[in-house]
Amino acid sequence: MTQGFEKRLEAIAAAGGNILYGGLKGVEKESLRISPDGFLSQTPHPAGLGSALTNRYVTTDFSEALLEFVTPALSTTWEALRCICDIHQFTYEHLGDEMLWTASMPCQTPPDTEIPLARYGDSNVGQMKTIYRRGLGHRYGRQMQVIAGVHFNYSLPQAFWPAYQSLTGSTSELCDFRSEQYLAMIRNFQRMGWIVLYLFGASPAVCKSFALGEASLQSLNDTTWYEPWATSLRMSDLGYSNQNQSRINISLNSLDQYVEDLSNAICTPEPSYEAIGVKVDGAYRQLNANLLQIENEYYSPVRPKRVARSGEQPTAALRREGIEYVEIRSLDINMFDPAGINQNTMRFIEAFMIYCLLEDSPKLDASAMDEIAFNQTGTAKRGRDPEFRLLRDGRSTELRKWATEILAGVHEVAALLDQHDGDRSYRDAVHALQAVVDNPEATLSAKIIGELRDTGTSFFEFGLSMARCHRDYFASIAPLEGRREQVLAEEAEDSVQRQRDIESADRISLDEYLQQYFTAC
Fold first, then answer.
1. Which residue, 85, 165, 96, 210, is CA-closest to 476?
2. What is the number of other CB atoms lying within 10 angstroms of the CB of residue 487?
3. Cβ atoms 4, 406 nearer than 8 A
4. CA angle 144, 87, 61 (to 5 degrees)
5. What are phi and psi of 40, to 5 degrees?
6. What is the model's pTM?
7. What confidence score (pLDDT) does residue 240 get?
8. How many domains does the structure of the chain reveal?
9. Which of 205, 243, 422, 499 has a 20 to 30 Å separation from 362 between CA atoms?
10. Residues of the domain holding 146
11. Cα separation, 284 vs 282, whole angstroms
12. What are 354-399's pLDDT values in tens digits?
């Protein structure tokens, strides 16, 4: 912890630490639909879940089989957890004999050609979403795109920002000040986000049907690839941190530079993607042949976000009113938790993000970005290795030492958050994780490897067993009723009509729609 952090935290405490309480939290959790025998579902999006295009709570990601559950922005971790559980329970009511896969790394995965793309209907916007996914498949392979995760969205309370601006003495416009501070938070999350992979990484192994693992992973048994010390293969160079994306450099030093770099990537042709073709024999293979088709293609463990208006590009939304919230994308699905995430994880991430905001956050140069990449990839593949060392300002450092320092700062933030309710829930969440830092065998990733080794079970068998357990859990708890059931049922029904309205409102061709969307390029 720096003196700057202590000074800022003391000022917030003196002003009343409650200005930190009540930040909005949202969860987005992906889950593959699987058949009873554990294979990737080939069936269409369940009709009872409504329209994947317009349902606010249940949509799809890359594949028709990859569900995505989305909570609203809520002020407590309990509300967020209850909502994500409600969505799971409602979804199971409409899955028939199918189940939800419980791991980030996929189930029994067919060849790329047999992984169905998500479908969103005949509207221009719906077709664009499917074409974008077709492009991802051509660029990175469809198997990589069915890796699943949990995203955590967070914004500090509105009342925090004018109070914090006054404490810092800033004379900027409040909108600009907020964006600058969120970027400071994001830079520090990049620097220290390796701790999320260590603490919550839950993808140290993968089924051998995942062909991408053959060249770089070890064999645990006849049907399982793994890395002995891995925490999160999902976040390694095997998964999202791949070489194609590593060539794209997006600055986090100012919002203007971030938007400019992202916009340039969307407008810069890439020869290898040009070789794929854009529209071939009358059918789109991808939206364009540029480094990024759209902003969402750029994968980062953390993103600055603002809710966009209908038809508005994310960069345009950021230009309009600055950063509204921050999206954390590096959480694996917790295989041992029916909802894939729990309150203690949310509590830690919230306190950690505030710590990242209050800690000194220098601008990132090329050397710092190289260290960030090294630490993330290294922790993802070797984070539990006693010999592994992180890089910190050009020097080698022990993961446990740096993690303990981070947790000490997060614990101080947690103490302020606890003041509102008069309990120790945030501090207890942080304290429990210190034991995980002290004992790598207590990590989720080590528990998974231990389970596989001790029982002689394959990753696939273990994942299928957990899927059945979680299905049975949601069947065993009290049925949804009253307003909670009504909200989800009405949204599913209304979403179908909203899709029809969008389709009937189209007045231009798909070609014209795409041309207008990408006019800036």
1. 85
2. 17
3. no
4. 25
5. -55, 130
6. 0.96
7. 57
8. 1
9. 243
10. 3-517
11. 7
12. 999 999 999 999 999 999 999 999 999 999 999 999 999 999 999 9
- In this prediction, residues 290-304 reach a mean pLDDT of 95
Residue whose pair of structure tokens reads 């498949």 in the numeric block: 137
- Write the secondary structure of 386-419 as one string of H (helix), E (strand) and C (coil): CCCEEEECCEEEEHHHHHHHHHHHHHHHHHHHHH
Longest CA span, the chain = 67
278: three-class secondary structure by DSSP: coil
CATH of the domain at 96: 3.30.590.20
Tokens of 357: 């905001």
Look at the block and give the residue holding tokens 């990601």. Answer: 61
Provide the total of helices (H) and of strands (E) in the chain, helices listed first.
19, 14
Which amino acid, residue 420? H
Q: Which residue has the higher pLDDT, 109 or 344?
A: 344
pLDDT (mean) for 189-202: 98
Residue linked to tokens 């990589």: 144
**Which residues on adjacent β-strands are paired with residue 207?**
224
Which pLDDT tens digit goes with each residue over 458-508?
A: 999 999 999 999 999 999 998 888 989 999 999 999 999 999 999 999 999
Rounded mean pLDDT, 18-37: 96
